[in-house]
């Protein structure tokens, strides 16, 4: 099972996880990460407003350079109560994040924007993730690895910190960074991709 497209496809992301998930479609794509700094979350009234703006900014910035292509941008944040947890800057911040997440339920929101010429589609997925109580020694050992520092909330559900996760409600791939099933639905509905070898476009 493989999809086809009549357009060049560009993934506006440096994330190896997003690249791997997009490869599931079997469509060739280029990777052109956005170079613009992400906005300051404090400028936004809601976490959702922030993550939607980040995804749109990444896709729009790259689409301005590639008007011929379907450009996909995405952004993932961890939300605990009123607080937005982005990628931790250092061990102290990563430790603080994981101490807060320990034994509690948080939300992961991933927003995706698809731009093609003048058309733009944005959607998001929210996932509830519950952590086990984390012993301090686990947090200390994990934050000594490189793993938390390129991930929102200082953990990766797909890596060794998946051991922290007691329960998840929602799309696992949205936590990893790209809700590929929902994205496929949107790309098919927009007529951007279709199943290879099928007599009907679907
Ligand atoms: C919560 C969680 C996040 N993440 C990752 C997904 C994203 O790559 C990252 C959040 O940072 P983002 O700013 O969304 O993305 P990025 O900087 O990695 O890549 P780009 O902006 O170029 O697209 O956290 C995981 O890999 N696993 C997880 O369990």
Automatic annotation (TrEMBL):
InterPro entries noted in UniProt: ITPase-like_fam (IPR029001), Maf-like (IPR003697)
Residues marked Important for substrate specificity (site): 17, 76, 158
Superkingdom: Bacteria
EC number: 3.6.1.9
Regions that span the bilayer: none
Keywords per UniProt: Cytoplasm, Hydrolase, Nucleotide metabolism
Obligatory cofactor(s): a divalent metal cation
Catalytic activity: dTTP + H2O = dTMP + diphosphate + H(+); UTP + H2O = UMP + diphosphate + H(+)
Cellular localisation: Cytoplasm
Protein function: Nucleoside triphosphate pyrophosphatase that hydrolyzes dTTP and UTP. May have a dual role in cell division arrest and in preventing the incorporation of modified nucleotides into cellular nucleic acids.
Similarity comment text for this entry: Belongs to the Maf family. YhdE subfamily.
Name of the molecule in the record: dTTP/UTP pyrophosphatase
Species this chain originates from: Planococcus faecalis
């Amino acid at each position: 099972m493989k999809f086809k497209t009549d357009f060049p496809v560009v993934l506006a992301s440096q994330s190896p996880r997003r690249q791997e998930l997009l490869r599931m479609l079997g469509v060739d794509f280029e990777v052109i990460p956005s170079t613009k700094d992400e906005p300051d979350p404090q400028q936004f009234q809601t976490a959702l407003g922030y993550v939607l703006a980040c995804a749109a900014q990444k896709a729009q910035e790259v689409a301005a350079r590639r008007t011929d292509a379907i450009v996909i941008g995405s952004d993932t944040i961890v939300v605990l109560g009123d607080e937005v947890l982005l990628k931790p800057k250092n061990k102290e911040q990563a430790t603080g994040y994981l101490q807060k997440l320990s034994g509690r339920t948080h939300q992961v929101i991933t927003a995706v924007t698809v731009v093609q010429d003048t058309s733009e589609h944005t959607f998001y997925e929210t996932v509830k993730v519950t952590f086990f109580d984390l012993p301090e020694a686990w947090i200390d050992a994990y934050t000594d690895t490189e793993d938390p520092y390129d991930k929102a909330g200082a953990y990766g559900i797909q890596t060794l910190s998946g051991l922290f996760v007691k329960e998840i409600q929602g799309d696992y791939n949205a936590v990893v960074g790209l809700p590929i099933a929902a994205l496929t639905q949107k790309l098919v509905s927009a007529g951007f991709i279709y199943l290879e070898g099928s007599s009907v476009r679907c």
